[in-house]
């Protein structure tokens, strides 16, 4: 099991346990505990679904976070009428 942003690599894990918010500056540095310039936090979507095509994290962000955002984008792109 992988827990971004703390687990930085995906490796051979096949479960992403998304619990923590992912906040980074635009240099790819984690700003945990402070809202980052780039952010993906499930709590931002407690009353609305996340949009399709979330902005990818800046260079330097851990592979686990990049994979998480790619997977959310893939899922929302393939669900008919997502966000309608």
From TrEMBL:
Keyword NADP in record: no
InterPro entries xrefs: HPAT-like, HPAT/SRGT1-like
Membrane topology classification: Single-pass membrane protein
GO MF, any single term: glycosyltransferase activity
Keywords: Glycosyltransferase, Membrane, Transferase, Transmembrane, Transmembrane helix
Entry's Gene Ontology cellular component terms: membrane
Domain Hydroxyproline O-arabinosyltransferase-like residue range list: 1-82
Pfam families: HPAT
Subcellular location: Membrane
Protein name: Hydroxyproline O-arabinosyltransferase-like domain-containing protein
